[in-house]
Fold these 2 entries.
Entry 1:
Amino acid sequence: MKILGIETSCDETAASVVLDGRHILSNVINSQIDIHAVYGGVVPEVAARSHIEVINPVINQTLKDANVTWEDIDAISVTYAPGLVGSLLIGNLSARTLAILKNKPLYAVHHVKAHVYANFLNSDGKTPEFPILSLIVSGGHSQLVLFQSHNDFEILGQTQDDAIGEAFDKVAKILGLPYPGGPSIAKSAEKGNPHAYKLPKSKLANKYDFSFSGLKTAVLRAVQHEVGVDFNYPSTMLAEKLSEKQINDFASSFQKTAVETLVDKVVVAYNEFKPKSFVIAGGVASNLELRKKISASLPIQVTYPPINLCTDNAAMVASLGYFQSLNEKPTDPYSLDVIPSLSMKIKL
Ligand code: AMP
Ligand code: ZN
C-alpha cells in the first residue's frame, strides 16, 4: 500500500511516499530554517506563507521522486495536530482537497505520535517489537510513552514546562550560539568541559515527568555570575562577555545535565516495564551524546532513526497513516479540522 504523507505543522513543508509503512519511496523536505534564522525562532505568519508557496511543488516533487502517479497512491495521510494553526491549515487544506479530487482515503495523524514512526522506516525493513518504550524529544515535546500496540499506548511522563529542544534553543540564545540551538550546542559542547559548571536536575512528583525550565534558568544565573552582572542585565548581551572556552564549557555542562536527566528516566522506566524495544524520536534524537549515553545505559541493542528522519518529515506521517489504515476508517475530508494543541492523551 502506497501512502502519500503531508507534514506542515511547524516550519518544514514535507511530502513523502511510503510503501507499507516501512519503505520510503521518496521524502521531500523544504526547510524554512534559513528564513527564520534571522528572527532567532519560528515566526508563525512567515511559516504559513512559506508553506503556501511551496506545498504544491513539494507534493509534485515527491510523486516524481517516487516514480508514481496519482493512480498508484492508495491513501493520503496528513498531520492535523498539534502545531502552529496557520501551518497546520495549509497541509490540511491541501490533503483534504487532494483526497476529494483524487478520490483517496484520508488519514489524520498526530504529529508527536508520528515522530515515533520514524523508527519503523528502517532501510532493512526491521521494525521495533512491542511493547515499545519511546522517548519523544522535540522542540515542542518531551514525553516517555509506552506502546503495547499501535493503538494502545500510555504516557508515562512528560515535561511540566519547557520541552527539551526548547531548552537547547533558549540556552543557545543565552550563549550567543546560532539558531537552531540544538545542533549549535552539540557542536560547541564537543570542545567544552562537561564538568566545568554544576547544574541542577529537577525532581518531580511523578518520577517520569520532566522539567527543563529550571535547568535553563540555572544556566542563565551561572552565566550572569561568571561574567559578574546581576539579574537585571539584558540576557541578549551576556554572550559578548563570555570567552569561547566559557561558551563551550557552558554548552557542554548543559548538554551533559540535560542528557543525563533524560537517560536516568529512561533507565528507570526500562527496568520497571521491561519493554522488548526502546526507540527515540524527535529532533533532539539527533543528539549524538544522547544516543551514546542511551546505548551505554540499556541492556538491549538500540537502533536509531537516521538524522533526517528525527526532525520533522512526512515519511513518518505516511508510516503512521499506513498503520492507522490497518485499524481505522478514513476520516471525512469535508469535515477534518486542525487541532493546534491536542495532547496524545486524548484518544485520536
Ligand atoms: P522537532 O521539534 O522534532 O522538529 O525538532 C526540533 C528541535 O530539535 C529543536 O529544538 C532543535 O534545537 C532540536 N535539535 C535538533 N538537532 C539537535 C541536536 N543535535 N541536539 C539537540 N537538539 C537538537
Ligand atoms: Zn516535530
Entry 2:
Amino acid sequence: MQLAVIGAGYVGLVTAAVFADLGNKVMVVEIDGEKIEKLKQGEVHFYEPGIKELIQKHIITKNLQFTGDYKEAMWGVEFVFICVGTPTKNKKADLSYVYSAAKSVAENLKSPAIVVIKSTVPPGTNIELEKWMRKFTKCNISLASVPEFLREGKALEDSLHPHRIVIGAEKKKVVNKLLALHEKLPGERVICNCASAQMIKYASNAFLPTKISFANSVSVLCDKFGANVEDVMRGVGLDKRIGPDFLSAGLGYGGSCFPKDVAALISLSKDVGYTFDILQAVEKTNKKQISYFVKKVFKRCGGSVKGKTLTVLGLSFKPGTSDMREARSFYIIKKLRREGAKIKATDPVAISEAKKVIKGVKFCEDPYEALSGANALLLVTEWEEYQKLDFDKIKKLMHNLVVIDGRNFFDRKKLEKLGFTYEGIGK
Ligand code: UGA
C-alpha cells in the first residue's frame, strides 16, 4: 500500500521504517530541508538502536523515500499518518503543527485517503480537524486515530512486536482498511472511536507515571522505616493485578512524553470542570523526588556542596537515548550549581545534546576522567555500561569515596566492601 508519513521526528521515522519493512511504499514529508537531505543519505538525527540500519535498508529497496514536498507525497496515497509534535504550551498540548500539517495534506490530496493521527492529541481533536481539512479539499477524507506506544531506545522492538494496536475510527470501512494495513503485526486489537483511542494514549501515559510516583513515595517511607524499596516493590508487583513494571523508585520520570501528557491531561480535565487530583499529586511527587535526591547529596557531602566537585554519571532522560527532554540531570545539576557545587558530567551518547541545555559544567567523554578528583559520584541515568566500571580504579581517582545512587543501580555491598559510602533511594 502507499503511505505518506508527515513528520520525520521520532514517531514519524519509526512508523515509516516499520511500514516500509512490512512491504509498503512510504514517503516521509518533513519541512526541515537539512533533515531531509541527511535522511536521503541514510543519516538519522537522533540516536535509536536499529533505526538507521532499517532506514538505509529501505532506501535501497525504495520502499522508503523522503521529501519536503507535500504534492509529491500525496500522489496516489491511501493512508496519511500525521506524526508531528504536540509540545506543551501553557500546560496544554500545542496542536498548531498538527493543524498546519493537516492543511498541507488536504491542499495536496488528489484522491480519497484515510488520515491517521499518530500524534498525541486531546480526545475529540479529530472532529475539529476533519472540519478544518474539509475547508481545503474536495477529496473524500476519513480521519482515524492509531496512537503510538513505543518507548525511546526500544522503538523498533515496540513497533514490530506491539502488545496492542488501538484503532480509533468512526466508520467500519476505515477500521477494516486499518486492520488490513496492520495485519502482519502481532498484538491485541482494540477497536473504538477516535476519542477513546486518544484517551487510551493519555490514560496510559498518565497511569505509568502514577505507578512511578507511587513507588517513589514508598521509597521515602522505606528510607524512614528501614525497608528496602526494591524488595517492597518486587513483593507488590508480583500481585498480577498490579504488575511488576514501572515500579522502580529513583529520580522520577522525564522524557518527551510523560511530563507533557500528564500536564496536558490535568489541563484538559480543568477545561471540562474536573480536577484530576491524582495526577496533580503525581506531578508534585515527581518534582519532590529531585529535591529528595539533592538533600541526600547534601547529607553525604557534610551539609554543604559549596566548592565540592560532584560527578554526574548519565545525562539523558533514560538509558538508550541521547534525548535530554525533561532529563532529571538538568534539574539536579541546576540545583547543585546554585548551591556552589562544581559539576563534572559524563554520558555515553548524550553529551552533545546536554551541552545545548546545561551550562557551566565540565563534560568528559571518559567516566574515569569525570570522576578524577570528585567528592561524590552521582548516578543519575542507569546506563548498562556503568555496571562495568572498575571501582578499584575509581577509588584511586576520587577525592572522597561517596556514591549517591539515584537509580538503585550499583551493588551497595560491593561498594561498601571497597570502602565507599553508599546512599541509594529507599534502601
Ligand atoms: C513512554 C511510554 O513508556 C511509551 O509507552 C509511550 O509510547 C511513550 O512514552 C510516548 O508517549 O511516546 P518513553 O518516554 O520512551 O516512553 O520512556 P519510558 O521508558 O516509559 O520512561 C519514561 C521515564 O520514566 C524515564 O525517565 C524513566 O527513567 C522513568 N521510569 C520508568 C522510572 O523512573 N521508573 C520506572 O519504573 C520506569
